[in-house]
Write a structure and sequence with these properties.
11% strand; 7 strands; 11 helices; 326 residues; seven-stranded parallel sheet; alpha/beta
């Protein structure tokens, strides 16, 4: 079977220059929001979600609503205090939600509307990987159901109940789903069927949102936050991956740091903030990488728009292969 460059390889190295930490250009302390925004972060009790909250606090968000499961209420309170310390003038609220429950998400939307009226930015950071299972005949089928409930159903429910609030915004109108380049993977040490398929589906939900709500001014983005050693990653990443340097990528990268779990936990938050500030509608519906250099990314705008890049597709060869005239 002919071998082609794997999609995950292409995704990791889409810009020639890559970063493992927020650059000066993305530093939240020097990238202030042009006006105070109302920001909702789903899954903010630790790790990447907490980093996103810190970024918006430093940038001057007017209102930051942090959410987590009830079981993470104590950790969420700690994050809320740290956010308040970063920006004492910002309104900080901590709310509970179970994103697998339509009733819970609907109640959260009602509470948010009552408190802030409208939202400018919604970020879905909650995610679940389950154990790494490399063959569908193995593992517990319930694990797949649990992963899909959080990553797919959860993203759908947040969009269903919060898109109406975003439509009322006169600001950023940004919906971001923290995704993963695992959505490209079908083989290898971390080709966990449940997680990879769920992240593929989540990215496609983002594509649907861009098609359905671009006319309303809503920017929908799926974002790979980098290879961060979060609590979930640390628990579920097999040792075979940690020790693997994945030589296939060396033709694109001088360092294999982009494959190890060594990226700054604040990288994703800095990139989310850049998206809110820039609101690049030409990136609507696309899966981006927080490791990418934004200046290099901006220079690729004509190519991205012209070839409709950074979305999932189906290869049939040239136009004649699809029965079209050439």
């Amino acid at each position: 079977m002919p071998q082609r460059t794997e999609d995950s390889t292409l995704a990791f190295g889409f810009t020639k220059t890559l970063h493992t930490n927020p650059t000066a250009a993305l530093d939240p302390a020097s990238n202030k929001l042009p006006k105070p925004l109302n920001v909702l972060i789903i899954g903010a009790s630790r790790g990447i979600g907490a980093g996103i909250a810190y970024a918006y606090a430093q940038a001057g968000a007017g209102s930051i609503i942090l959410t987590s499961r009830a079981s993470s209420a104590q950790e969420l309170a700690t994050v809320a205090q740290q956010v308040k310390d970063l920006n004492p003038s910002s309104s900080i609220q901590s709310l509970e939600v179970d994103i697998t429950s339509a009733k819970s998400v609907a109640q959260l939307a009602e509470n948010v509307k009552k408190e802030v009226g409208r939202l400018d930015v919604v970020i879905v950071n909650s995610g679940y990987s389950g154990p790494v299972v490399l063959k569908v005949e193995e593992g517990n089928p319930q694990d797949l159901q649990d992963v899909v409930n959080v990553n797919v159903q959860g993203t759908y429910l947040v969009a269903h109940y919060f898109i109406p609030l975003l439509k009322e915004s006169n600001g950023a109108k940004t919906f971001i789903a923290i995704n993963s380049f695992a959505s490209h993977i079908v083989r290898g040490h971390i080709a966990n069927t449940a997680y990879c398929v769920s992240k593929f589906a989540q990215a496609r939900i983002v594509e649907f949102l861009s098609e359905q709500y671009a006319a309303d001014g809503i920017l929908a983005i799926a974002l790979h936050p980098g290879a961060v050693n979060t609590e979930m990653s640390d628990k579920n990443t097999p040792e075979s991956f940690r020790s693997c340097k994945c030589i296939r990528l060396l033709n694109l990268m001088e360092s294999t740091d982009f494959l190890d779990l060594t990226h700054d936990v604040n990288l994703g938050g800095a990139f989310c903030l850049w998206l809110s500030n820039e609101k690049p509608m030409w990136l609507n519906g696309r899966l981006l990488g927080a490791t990418w250099d934004v200046d290099k990314l901006m220079k690729k705008k004509p190519q991205i728009e012209g070839d409709d890049l950074l979305k999932f597709g189906y290869r049939v060869g040239d136009a004649s292969a699809a029965g079209q005239s050439v």
